[in-house]
Amino acid sequence: MSYTLGEIAERLKAELHGDPDIRISRIANLASAGEGEISFLNDAKYRKDLSTTGASAVIIRASDLEHCKTAALVMNDPYVGFALVAQMLDTTPKQKNEVHPSAVVADDVKIGSNVSIGANAVIDSGAEIGDDAVIGPNCYIGCNAVIGARTRLWSNCSVYHNVRIGTDCLLQSGAVIGSDGFGYANDRGRWVKIPQLGSVVIGNHVEIGANTCIDRGAIDNTVIEDNVIIDNLCQIAHNVKIGTGSAMAGTAVVAGSTTIGRYCIIGGRSVFNGHINICDGTTIAGATSVMRSITKPGTYSSGVPEMTEKKWRKVMACLPMLDEVCKTVRKAQKIVDTMTDSEKE
């Protein structure tokens, strides 16, 4: 698979500098790229590699053109350009539009055109599979679940009953959608399970990482809106809502009935308390514990940065005394507040 630089420029809507007939077949890093490869510069700290790169072409901003010694595609956001070229040169295997003989498909399942169903997949009664969808090997699709057109499930995904997944979605291997929320009542020390009667509704153009779990709602649905991306190993509890265009990095955990707004950025290993609301346009730094609702957009952090073990031990030794120190400071402040200016001097 290869494209001319002119074809790539047209796809990217980029300004072409150089021979449009140069053929590109691969993407590479600036420092290691060679003939037939294209690279990009998105960070000025790598500009030193621009003048020495062996790439046949690079994607850059106009401000970097004077440093470029090879053919170039100029655009405002080279990283978006890189993403689009990667789509053009994607080597992900294409699935055959067929139902594997070992798949088990209930008689009343509605299957669209050009659907691929892999080996040992199980699709239960009443399910619907949209046109051009791909159901990977060993996947399970529950009763009355709906998989939208062009949605792809890699191997070993489980989609429980009544779950609805929109069009053009991607579920990486091991994703579990619609498992029971963590709902129990305590009857004098005995846990009484609460059946989770809601479902999960996932919008269009949503991507869900490997081994991520999204629980079904207790009564109402868990909702993931359009164009949301969720990384690997995340836990989304029952009745959570994630708004359009938000992104969540790996191992983040969201407790039940929390709403995350539109276009939020959630750092890896973040933890969200239950029954809180996060407003649109909020950024949460990695390893942040979000215990209260956030009503004003901005960037929020609470993670403790790394330090030497010796220093960490000293800090931890002081931590139990922090409350007494605060009390002492408050008492001292009260005394200062009652003093005259001459006394303070």
Fold and architecture overview:
This protein has 345 residues and is an alpha/beta fold. The protein folds into three domains: 3-88, Udp-n-acetylmuramoylalanyl-d-glutamate--2,6- Diaminopimelate Ligase, Chain: A, domain 1, CATH 3.40.1390.10; 104-300, Hexapeptide repeat proteins (UDP N-Acetylglucosamine Acyltransferase, domain 1); 309-344. Helices cover 14% and strands 27% of the residues. The chain is built from five helices and 38 strands. The strands form six sheets. A ten-stranded parallel beta sheet has the order 8-11-14-17-20-25-28-31-34-37, with no helix packed on it. Strands 10-13-16-19-24-27-30-33-36-38 form a ten-stranded parallel beta sheet, with no helix packed on it. Strands 9-12-15-18-23-26-29-32-35 form a nine-stranded parallel beta sheet, with no helix packed on it. A hairpin with a 2-residue loop joins strand 21 and strand 22. The longest helix has 17 residues, at 322-338. The relative contact order is 0.06. The mean pLDDT is 96.
Rounded to the nearest angstrom, the distance between the terminal CA atoms is 80 Å
Strands side by side in the biggest sheet: 8-11-14-17-20-25-28-31-34-37
Task: Please tally the helical runs, counting DSSP H or I stretches of 4 or more residues.
Answer: 5
Specify the helix fraction band. 10-25%
What name does the CATH topology of the largest domain carry? UDP N-Acetylglucosamine Acyltransferase, domain 1
Query: Biggest sheet, in brief?
Result: 10 strands, parallel
At CATH's second level, what is the architecture of the largest domain? Answer: 3 Solenoid
Total number of beta strands: 38
What's the level 1 CATH class of the largest domain?
Mainly Beta
Uncertain regions spanning at least 5 consecutive residues = none
Strand content: 25-35%
Q: Determine Rg (CA atoms, Å).
A: 27 Å
Quickly give the structural class.
alpha/beta
Overall number of domains: 3
Backbone shape: flat
Mean pLDDT: 96
Q: Write out the CATH superfamily name of the largest domain.
A: Hexapeptide repeat proteins
